[in-house]
Structure formats: structure tokens, C-alpha cells
Amino acid sequence: MTGRILSLCSLLIALFALASCSQLNNAHVTHLYIASDSTATDYSTEPDYATKRYPQMGWGQVFQPLFTTESIKQLKNLNIGHAVVVDDRAKGGRSTRSFFEEGRWREIRDALKPGDLVLIQFGHNDQSKEKIDRYTPIEGYKQYLRLYVEQTREKKARPVLITSVNRNYPWLNGKLQNSHGDYPQAVKDIGKEMNVDVIDLTQLSIEHFTAKGEAYVTENYFMNLPAGKFEAYPNGQKDNTHFQPEGAEAVANLVFDALTKLPEKP
Predict the structure, then answer these.
(1) CB–CB of 133/97 below 8 Å?
(2) Which of 121, 123, 215, 225 could be 164's S-S partner, Cβ–Cβ 3.0 to 4.6 Å?
(3) How far is Cα 254 from Cα 230, in angstroms, rounded to an integer?
(4) Which mean pLDDT values do the consecutive 10-residue runs of the chain (266 residues) have?
(5) pLDDT number for residue 147
(6) Ramachandran region of residue 81, left (φ > 0), alpha (ψ -120 to 50) or beta?
């Protein structure tokens, strides 16, 4: 009888432990870090955003609202908890090299916990040969991407490489063309070399922008603004790299949808 009682107690303890673990897993919050440039920056954190910068937005600025209780169920292959907190560390003008040299990457690395996600999207500034403070040749670009992947994995977090979102040029016969040269392919090369997830945002954005049409995305997605409409740009603006709200939201949705399609990993 005593043996049966002990066995029953052991079983109850085991079931309680399993229930506790389940509750902990369900309560787990995944932090999603964005390491990137101006195309993903959250400008709303800047002083006087409404009067000095609006309507410019990065896709990371509008990423958090996409992670609802229902939508998170689509990310089951990422082994995340019941909630996702987006921590957008993107900064304008940064390349893989300058992001590292300024200590911005170290801040992400030091904050990482097991199970966190890190989205890594650079290239716009790496390819700027005329700007020596940020230019990073292809081989150097690859080396920094390798470093970011390795250090993310060391912290038992999951890296996701993202090719650059395309600029609004060049257009040829009604179709948008790659504006980033060999840099998107370099990201895919590292993905294959290191068996790391890659979201080909260059191609996804080319296809999406092309479907919308040059006139539409020029007016509604990118920062091409008429004079007198926005306080921050009294003389208007011509900018085919950075986004208005509709463009930022479109790109954020492309990234989120791509996340739902990533494979499950141990």
C-alpha cells in the first residue's frame, strides 16, 4: 500500500511539474530585435517627430501591431511564446560595419536570451562607395553577417537574414529592377553557407511594388511629397528610398508573411 501511495505521489508531482512547465512556456515572451538601417528605423522615438520627420516611417516602426494573439499562431515554426515584443534597434545611415563599430550590435548581443529572434537587414549603406564611413565591400559585408549569425547562435537565439528592401528604381518596361547589385546575393550566399534563414525582401518588394505600379508606389509608398502638405517638408520631398506610412506597412507585412513561412528548427 505504501508503495502504491509513493507511486501515486510521484505521478502527481510529475504531472504538476509538467503543468508548471507548460504554463511557463505559454507565458514566455519572445523578444524580436531588428538590426538594420533607415528603411527599418522607428522614427517616432525622435524628438519632435511630428513636426520634423513625419510622415517618414521605417517598416520596423509598424511591425509590433502585426503580432496579435491570433497572428502569432502563424509563427508556430519559430518556437515562440504567447507574445512577441519588437525591439527595433535599426538606425539610419548604418551599414553592417558601422552598426558594429558603434557598439549597436553589442547592445543587441548582450540583451539576447534563448529563443529570441534577430532580424538582420543591411545593404543600402554598405554599397555606398562614396561614403567611406559606411561603405563595406562584399567580402567585408559577408564577414559581418557571419559574425552576427554566429554571435546570435551563441546566445541560443535565432538569426534571420533579410536582403535589402528595394528602392523605387530603376524601372524598366513597367517592372522594377534590383537596385542593390550583388549585395542581395551575398546575403543568400551566407544563408546557404551557414544554414541560416533568409528572407529575400529584395525580390518580395520588387514583385509587390511592380504589382502596384510605378506611379502608385512613387506617390503612396515612398517619400515623394508635394510642397505644403507636411510641416516637416514645407518645400516637398523627392525620396525613392524611404517610406511613407503605407509603404512601411506594406513592407512590414511582407516581412511578417515571410516569417510565417520559415521552417521549424530544433
Answers:
(1) no
(2) 123
(3) 27
(4) 42 38 56 98 96 98 97 93 96 98 98 97 96 96 98 98 98 97 98 98 98 98 97 98 98 98 88
(5) 98
(6) beta
How far is 128 from 124, CA to CA, in rounded Å? 7
Maximum distance among all Cα pairs of the chain, rounded to whole angstroms: 88
In 3D space, the residue among 113, 112, 91 whose CA is nearest the CA of residue 101 turns out to be: 91
144 Cβ partners below 8 Å, 6+ apart?
96, 97, 100, 122, 136
Q: Give the total residue count for the chain.
A: 266
Measured N-to-C along each axis, helices 138-154 and 183-194 cross at an angle, to the nearest 10 degrees, of 40
- φ and ψ at 238, to 5 degrees? -125, 105
Q: Is 198 left (phi over 0), alpha (psi -120 to 50) or beta?
A: beta
